[in-house]
Write a structure and sequence with these properties.
Shape: globular
Low-confidence stretches: 357-370
Strand content: 5-15%
Number of strands: 8
Helix content: 55-70%
CATH class of the largest domain: Mainly Alpha
Number of domains: 3
Largest sheet: 6 strands, parallel
Length: 370
């Protein structure tokens, strides 16, 4: 059977554990919570628990662990991480072995760090393995939460801690953590420590201690670019570069996120100008309509950004992003130092907006002459 992570966390393992579990999906925070729940409820003796990585252990080692007899508890629990990396032949052998697992074994298979593309295409876990576990055990899906789902998770965690959060604080917390439970959990713990004995958490508390996800920082960066505010944009850029590890590793991902944000703003601009019919032109990834169906709280900010940028300015931004990408990859000649490439890109994007703004102001200041 297949259930959502939310449903599983609500009811737990139950009286009769399944023979095999498969935990998959992009929501790493939910995945961590599900795996912790499985460990808490299934493992009674650490000696009878095994934890293997599918990228390091071959299938024969994994199957040997599942066939071992528990020594000090009713069942042996075998966790296998990274099942999306198993070879096709190993998947076939594992599918054949699942119905023959001993009654004293509980096998927990799970993926790790699935990409957005894998999630969209459904390629992280082969269909034959999903079907086998669905028939013999339980498939637990950890999909990105909708805005309502994230707020539900947040409310539950607040109730557990005996706290409340004001509506505007919830909205800000959701935005800063990108409605991602993996990012939100440590930030919530920090927030609870900060407020101490106080029972109500306000927006000022959230602003004081909650760190922005990279996605939230990029949102703020594009805000500054849309305003032509180069000083703020460069300050925000340096904050991202100084907090994310080696610049050579951060910049390519940062450029992807900036490009993604501009694609969303472009779609919102199309929707403003052409209405609902614009959705026929939306790409599959990122798709604005699908994103807002999950995370409605983003609509206001995206609309504000789109109102500041014309379709012509957005086209110019895409051209500059393409040029920067070619420079970073060494396709075009010139200085391809990662830091200088991203700094030039941000300055160029802000300069383009500032030039357009100045032209608009001059046009508005000069009266028509008949």
């Amino acid at each position: 059977m297949a259930v959502s992570a939310t449903d599983f966390l609500h009811r737990g393992v139950g009286k009769t554990p399944a023979r095999v579990y498969l935990v998959h999906g992009r929501e790493e925070g939910q995945k961590h919570a599900v795996l912790q729940r499985l460990r808490d409820e299934l493992v009674t003796e650490e000696f009878d628990r095994a934890h293997l990585d599918a990228q390091e252990a071959d299938l024969s080692t994994i199957l040997a662990e599942t066939m071992s007899i528990p020594a000090f508890s009713p069942r042996r629990v075998v966790f296998v991480r990274g099942v999306q990396h198993l070879k096709s032949a190993d998947i076939d052998s594992l599918v054949d072995a699942i119905p023959r697992l001993p009654d004293s074994t509980c096998l927990v298979l799970y993926t790790h760090a699935e990409s957005e593309e894998e999630d969209r295409k459904g390629t992280a876990v082969p269909a034959k393995l999903l079907n086998a576990v669905d028939k013999q055990g339980m498939v637990i899906e950890c999909k990105p939460l909708s805005s309502a789902g994230f707020v539900g998770w947040l409310d539950a965690r607040l109730r557990e801690s005996g706290k409340e959060m004001t509506p505007d604080a919830k909205e800000r917390f959701t935005f800063l953590t990108a409605a991602n439970t993996a990012a939100a959990e440590p930030e919530l713990l920090k927030l609870l420590w900060f407020v101490g004995e106080r029972t109500v958490i306000g927006r000022e508390d959230v602003e004081a201690v909650v760190s922005r996800t990279v996605e939230a920082q990029v949102f703020k960066l594009v805000d500054a670019i849309a305003l032509g505010d180069a000083a703020s944009a460069m300050r925000l850029l340096q904050d991202v570069l100084s907090s994310g590890g080696r610049v050579e590793g951060v910049v390519p991902r940062l450029m992807v996120l900036i490009a993604r944000q501009f694609r969303l703003v472009w779609q919102m601009r199309l929707q403003i100008e052409y209405g609902e019919q614009a959705q026929q032109w939306f790409p599959s990834d990122p798709n604005l309509a699908q994103l807002l169906a999950r995370q409605r709280f983003l609509e206001k900010s995206l609309r504000e950004q789109a109102n500041r940028l014309s379709l012509q300015e957005l086209q110019q931004a895409f051209d500059r992003l393409h040029q920067a990408d070619r420079m970073l990859k060494g396709i075009d000649e010139g200085d391809n130092d990662a830091r200088r490439v991203i700094e030039r890109l941000v300055v160029d994007l802000c300069g383009s907006k500032a030039t357009t703004t100045r032209r608009s102001m001059l046009s508005a200041a000069v009266p028509d002459i008949d």
